[in-house]
Design brief:
With 361 residues, this protein is α/β, with parallel strands linked by helices. It is built from five helices and 32 strands. It has a domain of 252 residues. It is elongated, with a radius of gyration of 22 Å.
């Protein structure tokens, strides 16, 4: 079918919208194609200016890119655009987008020490760590993590108000680690399965939301250590060796108080209670320990289409069940959510720019 002139114009408008969301200047921004214009991703980055898009064609690129300026780095096809790293891909600038790559065989898949970045639609496999985040208001969404060999698929360190959503994590040692005073993060609608150790773990981190996740077949579904006021609701805990762990015996030897978190409205595959009135909520609570009790355990697994969209309210529970003695975590910023929604548009827009370049030749 012959392309019409109108289609590329629409794609250009989409590209402009993506740059506006990231805060990039639209004036003079361009698309750089690898390997057509530069043979390596790093050379393209070095020759880019703020606001440019680097579009990487299918192929295997053996390098460790350092993204140190505000750009969008977009792969042509996730499964066929491969970065074979050793140290990993490093993001050192705010407002960067990374989308559409397989990142393979390195120490870190992606290390992120910045803010307002969007990492989505990638596959990270056979690395020691998946994505390590130091920063705030980043979006890590729609990625696949497989066979992360030593640590976690996603690790948050001193990281606040980040969105971790829609990721698929399989056969990793750890799933998502929320560590070192990471607060007000939202972990929503991820699938985490077959992790050797812990699917989601909290250590010295407060006021986070974990909602609408499928957590299955792992050594430990969720762990709590020195962490308070986290809200864990509307998740499916299915056939983990230990569904939920809050063993803080060593932590308490230093005179600390036991952690207290809000855990309500989850499905637990080992729940033995009944539902006499048929409202879908178990008549007896699911008891983890004295400080962690799910008062409203669900009788059936929650389908993704029925889950909450990362809000702190759990639908269908009795009045007051969503209340907490403390304030709910801060809402995730709308700019990051918007960035997730336009990732596909960014990829398509880059393709449209390439189309225009070819028409000019």
């Amino acid at each position: 079918m012959k392309a019409t002139v109108g289609v590329p114009l629409v794609l250009l408008l989409l590209a402009a919208s993506c740059m506006a969301l990231s805060g990039a200047s639209q004036a003079g921004s361009r698309t750089i194609i690898v390997p057509d214009e530069y043979p390596t991703i790093q050379q393209a980055i070095d020759n880019a200016v703020e606001g440019d898009t680097i579009y990487v064609k299918k192929g295997v690129y053996v390098e460790n890119p350092v993204v140190n300026k505000l750009i969008s780095l977009v792969g042509e096809d996730r499964d066929s655009t491969v970065i074979d790293v050793t140290a990993g891909l490093k993001v050192q600038s705010n407002n960067v987008t990374i989308a559409g790559f397989t990142i393979y065989d390195g120490y870190d898949g992606i290390s992120l020490a910045t803010n307002y970045c969007n990492i989505s639609g990638n596959k990270i496999t056979n690395t020691t760590h998946g994505i390590v985040v130091f920063g705030y208001e980043n979006s890590i969404s729609g990625n696949i993590f497989e066979s992360i060999g030593l640590s976690s698929a996603i690790q948050l360190n001193f990281a606040n108000r980040n969105l971790i959503s829609g990721n698929y994590i399989v056969s990793c040692v750890e799933g998502i680690q929320v560590w070192q005073n990471s607060t007000n993060n939202t972990i929503a609608e991820n699938t985490i399965t077959d992790c050797k150790n812990t699917a989601i773990g909290f250590q010295y981190s407060n006021d986070n939301v974990v909602i609408g996740n499928n957590i299955s077949g792992s050594g430990l579904g969720t762990s709590i250590y020195g962490s308070n006021r986290n809200r864990i609701s509307n998740n499916n805990y299915v056939h983990n060796d230990v569904q939920f762990g809050a063993n803080e015996s060593y932590y308490l030897t230093f005179g600390n108080n036991p952690s207290i978190n809000n855990i309500n409205g989850n499905f637990w595959s080992d729940y033995q209670g009944t539902d006499a009135n048929g409202d879908g909520i178990g008549d007896a609570p699911y008891v983890i320990n004295a400080n962690h009790i799910d008062q409203y355990p669900l009788m059936k697994t929650v389908a993704f289409s029925e889950q909450s969209n990362g809000t702190s309210e759990v639908p269908g529970l009795p009045d007051g069940a969503n209340d907490n003695e403390t304030n709910a975590p801060e809402s995730f910023p709308i700019s990051a959510v918007a960035a997730v929604s336009v990732t596909f548009a960014l990829v398509v827009a880059a393709a449209g720019l390439i189309y225009l370049k070819k028409r000019k030749r």
